[in-house]
């Protein structure tokens, strides 16, 4: 039976979408709607889609198509997010049974769209895609964060002005819009009051935070205010830094303020200057070497994460080898790698997609196997050391027949592990969930660490 004034949200794609989904839920709850865990009973079904690359678009379409097929009388199905922002009407042609289409730039109009569908004689499907809408970032009384256990993402800005040739984000989100420092601090204060231990700052490009507000090195300014005003938050993590914009001030802040984790995610995408130029990415690889060296000198135990694209149009075996040599030399703690996805409408479109899929796959496998060996060696260097870990869950060990072995393990993350994208710390024994505790590293796996409790 459909429950009136209930909704269910499926959030696809990145953590920035998760925050938008959370914000839409807050707006619906403030307007008297209740969240229904069970999508089959919810009156309003919302899918916050991802439109970044082909595999993500397929997943969004499949999710919408499945829900449309299962839709019951009295249910409304709304497609929101990046896919609808980018392809709008086309989505309604591909997915029969959609009631509403809302773009990512106007997530804060979700209640209006639902009301129009429920009470107005809205055309079906209802398109809510105001043209040239700037990316909406703040709405009164809505926290732009998403809590996951004792961690929370805070969106500090949205949109991007970088010219990366392969990327559709600027097409989808438009130019960057930063949130005022005071609004971000207020979100962090509320989260700290809820016992959140880790704040993760996200945007398309966190190092460009505040540019549109006229702030110079806005990210450093934000971090100074956050750590000055909220010393009670143990961990502050930075994701999505842009090469060329990691300043000395930012490095000094990470080095001098223990709250700001010695962890930096800086997607580089490639290491051969010619490939980087074709990607319209910063091609000054010397700057990367110098900055990483400077960071490692200033920040002991710095954990570095990056992302690379293999198979970009024109990538020769020699260019790819340069990338492998670079990875071997820098020895990143964490590496994510993607195969080039042809993106119509982006600056790379004229380059086509000439690298055969099997070559892309082979290069992706070579890169990941190299990184796996590096990651294991770095993990092995932690054996015997003590590491603070944020405990996030527990599990019972079973034998190969699924019988419980009466051995408890707890799962957590160290400062070296961002949620959902990096490794875990597997702790022998029962540890207090939601707490940051010191553990002794007893073993190393390619991406995860094993540990024992210091005070069992
Ligand atoms: S920095 Fe480049 S890759 Fe990242 S969102 Fe902006 S345009 Fe896309």
Shape: globular
Bound molecules: iron/sulfur cluster
In spatial order, strands of the major sheet run 7-8-11-12-13-14-15
- Count structural domains: 3
The second-level CATH architecture of the largest domain is Alpha-Beta Horseshoe
Mean pLDDT, to the nearest integer, reads: 94
Query: What name does CATH use for the topology of the largest domain?
Result: pyruvate-formate lyase- activating enzyme
Instruction: Give the % helix.
Output: 25-40%
Percent strand equals 25-35%
Class of the largest domain in CATH?
Answer: Alpha Beta
Report the radius of gyration as a whole number of Å. 23 Å
**Number of strand elements:** 20
Main sheet: strands, sense, barrel: 7 strands, mixed
In the predicted model, the low-confidence regions spanning at least 5 consecutive residues are none
How large is the count of helical segments?
A: 13
Structural class: alpha/beta
Could you tell me how far the N terminus lies from the C terminus, measured between alpha carbons in angstroms? 49 Å
């Amino acid at each position: 039976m459909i429950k009136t004034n209930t909704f269910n949200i499926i959030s696809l794609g990145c953590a920035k979408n998760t925050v938008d989904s959370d914000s839409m839920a807050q707006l619906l709850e403030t307007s008297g709607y209740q969240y229904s865990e069970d999508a089959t009973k919810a009156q309003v079904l919302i899918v916050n889609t991802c439109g970044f690359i082909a595999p993500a678009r397929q997943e969004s379409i499949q999710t919408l198509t499945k829900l449309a097929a299962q839709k019951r009388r009295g249910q409304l199905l709304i497609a929101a997010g990046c896919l609808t922002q980018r392809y709008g009407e086309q989505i309604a042609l591909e997915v029969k049974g959609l009631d509403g289409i809302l773009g990512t730039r106007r997530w804060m109009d979700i209640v209006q769209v639902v009301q129009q569908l429920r009470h107005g004689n809205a055309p079906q499907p209802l398109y809510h895609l105001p043209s040239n809408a700037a990316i909406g970032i703040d709405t009164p009384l809505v926290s732009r964060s998403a809590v996951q256990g004792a961690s929370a993402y805070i969106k500090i800005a949205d949109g991007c002005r970088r010219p990366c040739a392969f990327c559709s984000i600027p097409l989808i989100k438009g130019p960057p819009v930063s949130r005022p420092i005071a609004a971000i601090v207020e979100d962090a204060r509320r989260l700290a009051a809820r016992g959140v231990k880790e704040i993760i700052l996200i945007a398309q490009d966190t190092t460009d935070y505040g540019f549109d507000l006229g702030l110079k090195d806005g990210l450093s300014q934000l971090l100074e205010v956050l750590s000055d005003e909220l010393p009670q938050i143990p961990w502050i993590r930075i994701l999505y830094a842009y090469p060329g914009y990691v300043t000395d001030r930012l490095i000094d802040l990470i080095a001098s303020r223990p709250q700001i984790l010695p962890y930096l995610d800086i997607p580089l995408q490639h290491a051969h200057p010619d490939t980087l130029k074709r990607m319209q990415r910063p091609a000054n690889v010397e700057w990367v070497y110098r900055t990483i060296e400077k960071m490692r000198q200033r920040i002991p135990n710095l954990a570095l994460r990056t992302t690379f694209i293999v198979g970009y149009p024109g990538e020769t075996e020699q260019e790819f080898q340069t990338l492998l040599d670079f990875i071997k030399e820098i020895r990143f703690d964490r590496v994510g790698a993607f195969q080039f996805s042809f993106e119509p409408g982006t600056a790379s479109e004229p380059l086509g997609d000439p690298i055969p899929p099997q070559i892309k796959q082979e290069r992706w496998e070579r890169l990941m196997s190299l990184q796996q060996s590096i990651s294991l060696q770095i993990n092995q260097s932690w054996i015997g050391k003590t590491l603070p870990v944020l405990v996030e869950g527990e599990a019972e060990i079973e034998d190969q027949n699924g019988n419980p072995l009466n051995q408890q393990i707890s799962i957590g993350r160290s400062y070296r592990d961002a949620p959902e994208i990096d490794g875990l710390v597997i702790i022998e024994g029962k540890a207090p969930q939601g707490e940051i505790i010191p553990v002794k590293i007893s073993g190393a796996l390619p991406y995860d660490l094993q540990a024992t409790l210091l005070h069992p």
